[in-house]
Write a structure and sequence with these properties.
Elements lengths: L13 H17 L16 H9 L18 H13 L5 H17 L2 H12 L5 E4 L15 E5 L2 E9 L9 E7 L11 E7 L6 E7 L5 E14 L3 E2 L5 H7 L1 H6 L8 H11 L5 H29 L5 H25 L6 H13 L10 H11 L4
Parallel strand pairs: 1-4
Antiparallel strand pairs: 2-3, 3-7, 4-5, 5-8, 6-7
Bound molecules: flavin-adenine dinucleotide.
Length: 379
């Protein structure tokens, strides 16, 4: 029987809107005007900028104050993240830690783990990667083969993680590993570990160049890599529940539809106040889609604020949002002004080269559509 997905309309509260001008002023003061900017959360690694955000209380905003967090609402966090992305600020370094590693540590970590990691993340000093995908295991995450054997005082890990964004720069990685042989229940026997990317023996991190020539993601190889008991996250065997609980955070935010946004900004600047009719029509249509996606995404922020775990709603926002951010450079390429400045051209080139990955990272289109269909009771 088909079920409805409900996106209740949510208006950002006054205290959240009040932050908008503050973030805009900070970005205007901090970043040079002629910078080639990207709204892609995955490009722009700048630890100094992350520390500056941390000192303003803009990392770990929703976390409890006892761990250095801001104790603020998901709506306030929403405004800060959307303003940073819209401005094309370099947020990559702290993004994963702020978005999902911190919340997972808060939910499943021991008191020692929380007290150690969270204040460092909040200060913009400690960055995390996600170690889910493997060479033969991306969409079918339960089939991961990286394994850990119990030894005195910890675990010995062997296997390979792939496409691990930022692992060559970040400090830690939360990793999904098989700790018991696979049986009838494929979701049993998996566990999450915190891997020290800087100080572990038997760990090799090899950057992989993407289509744009950047080295952002990696292959991470474990060869008899010892991981101490203190770095088991949550309970052994509970990894599947834990990893899926991250997905509401991973998939719902404004980063899932804003990745190409700077190109729209540069187009509006390039056409000025005399756009050709097809340019005006395209800008209007793209802006209309953007407004709708934003409403849906803010509605999901409202669900997170009410302690729900909106995995299916987040999948829907990501699927529609990824379509939008992939379509945007294609539409703009066809109506680009013949004479345009260097910044517009470079932003177009950069966005075209990165856009194919938007609907792969964080779960592919087919996988998300399958989840949405299941959520609607259609399969
Ligand atoms: C820029 C970028 C950054 C990334 N960063 C990270 C990261 O930091 N950490 C991490 O763990 N991973 C990361 N990934 C990996 C990403 O999550 C995977 O690429 C993705 O989950 C798909 O897995 P795969 O590449 O193994 O493809 P496959 O799972 O082999 O899929 C190949 C194709 O088959 C389709 N397909 C697979 N199964 C089904 C099915 N059941 N029904 C219908 N179609 C199906 C898929 O949709 C896809 O089109 C990143 C990827 C990119 C592009």
């Amino acid at each position: 029987m088909a079920q409805a997905l409900t996106f209740d309309p949510v208006r950002l509260p006054h205290e959240a809107e009040a932050l908008r001008a503050e973030v805009r002023a900070f970005v205007a003061d901090t970043l040079p005007d002629d910078l080639l900017r990207s709204s892609d959360f995955g490009s722009g690694h700048d630890p100094e900028f992350s520390r500056a955000l941390g000192s303003r209380g803009w990392i770990g905003m929703t976390w409890p104050q006892q761990y250095g967090g801001g104790g603020r609402s998901f709506f306030e966090r929403y405004v800060v993240t959307e303003e940073l992305l819209a401005a094309g600020a370099p947020v990559e370094a702290h993004w994963i830690a702020d978005r999902q590693s911190g919340p997972v540590l808060l939910r499943y970590g021991t008191e020692e783990q929380r007290a150690f990691f969270l204040p460092r993340i909040v200060r913009g000093e400690c960055f995390f990667s996600i170690g889910m995908s493997e060479p033969d295991s991306g969409s079918d995450l339960a089939s991961v083969r990286t394994s850990a054997q119990r030894v005195q005082g910890g675990w010995v890990v062997n296997g390979t993680k792939l496409w691990t964004s930022g692992a060559h720069r970040n400090h830690y990685m939360i990793t999904l590993i098989r700790t018991e042989p696979q049986g009838d229940n494929r979701h049993a026997g998996l566990s999450q570990f915190i891997i020290d990317l800087k100080g572990s023996e038997g760990l090799t991190v090899r950057p992989i160049a993407n289509m744009a020539g950047d080295e952002d993601f990696n292959e991470v190889v474990f060869e008899d890599c010892f991981v101490p008991d203190e770095h088991l996250l949550g309970s052994a065997g509970n990894g599947w529940e834990q990893v899926t609980s991250e997905l509401g955070y991973e998939r719902s935010g404004p980063e899932r539809f804003l990745s190409s946004f700077r190109l729209l900004v540069e187009l509006v600047r390039a056409v000025g106040d005399a756009p050709e009719p097809e340019q005006a029509a395209a800008i209007g249509r793209l802006a209309g889609h953007l407004v709708t996606l934003r409403k849906m995404s803010i509605s999901v922020a409202g669900m997170l604020q009410s302690n729900h775990n909106p995995v299916v709603e987040a999948a829907l926002v990501k699927e529609l949002g990824n379509n939008f951010e992939k379509e945007l450079p294609e539409v703009i390429r066809l109506i680009a002004p013949e004479r345009s400045g260097r910044l517009f051209r470079r932003t177009l080139e950069d966005t075209l080269l990165h856009a194919p990955s938007f609907s792969l990272r964080g779960g592919t289109r087919e996988i998300l559509r399958g989840m949405i269909a299941r959520g609607l009771g259609l399969r």
